[in-house]
Amino acid sequence: MDEVEVVVAHRQRATLRVGDVFLKVDGDPAHADVEVRAMALAPVPTPAILWHEPPVLAIAAVPGRALGLLGEPSAASPEAWAAAGAAIRRLHDAPLPPWPGRRLDDVAAELDGECAWLLANAVLPAEVIHRNREIAGAALRPWKPVFIHGDLQITHVFVDGDRVTGVIDWSEAAPGDAMFDLAIVTLGHEERLDDLLAGYGTDVDRDVIRAWWSLRSLVASRWLIEHGFDPDAPGCEFDVLRSRMREP
C-alpha cells in the first residue's frame, strides 16, 4: 500500500500524495474551480484531473522534476529554462480566461498594508523595507492583461531534460501582468533570467521584473510567517529583499 506523503499543509489548504496521485484539499471551493477551468484552457502541459469532489481535487503526478527549489541553486540546464520561458510565452499569448484578475489599486493597497505590518513588527530593518517599497513602485503601473498562472513558483514548473512536462497549481490563474509570472519563476534565481528569456523573448521590462521580485517578497512574508514557513531561510524572500540593498 502506498504511503501518504504530506506535500504541504496549512490552515487554508493541504496537498497529499498517495503514489502517483495528488489530493488537494482546500477550504475555499473557488480555488479548485479556477484550477480546473484554467488547466482546461492553458496551452501548456498540465496534470491530468482524475476526479473532483469538493473540497478534494485529485490530479495525476506529472513526469520529470521541478525546475528548482527556492533557496537552492537550480540544477536545470539553460535549455530547460528556455523551454520554460517558451511555455510561459504560449500561455501569455493565449486568449484571456473569462474571469477577472486583480486590480492595480488592490495590489498597491496590499503592498502598503504589508509594508506597514513588516515595519510595525520589526521583522526586517526599516531601511530594507523602505528601499524595496521604492523598487516595488515600478510594478504599480497599468499593464496589458495576459493569461497568467498567477503563482508560477519554480517548484510549479516540471521538466524532463530540456522539455517542460507539466505546470501545476493553477488556482491563482487570471488575467494579469506578464512580468509578474516571469518574476515569480525567477524569484531567488535571478541569475537564470537570461536563460528564461532565451525562450520567452526579450520584449520585457527588466526593471518591472525586478520590481515584482521586491513586491512579491514584501507581500508574501507575513503570510509565510503566520503559516509556519520561514522567509528568512537562505535564498528565500528576506534574502531577496536584502540583495536589493546591494544594487545601485
UniProtKB/TrEMBL annotation:
Q: Which Pfam families match?
A: APH
**InterPro entries linked:** AGP_Transferase (IPR051678), Aminoglycoside_PTrfase (IPR002575), Kinase-like_dom_sf (IPR011009)
SUPFAM superfamilies from the xrefs? Protein kinase-like (PK-like)
Q: Which UniProt keywords apply?
A: Transferase
Transferase as a keyword of this entry, yes or no, is: yes
Gene Ontology MF terms in the entry:
transferase activity
Name of protein: Aminoglycoside phosphotransferase
| Organism of this sequence | Micromonospora chokoriensis
Lineage of the organism:
Bacteria, Bacillati, Actinomycetota, Actinomycetes, Micromonosporales
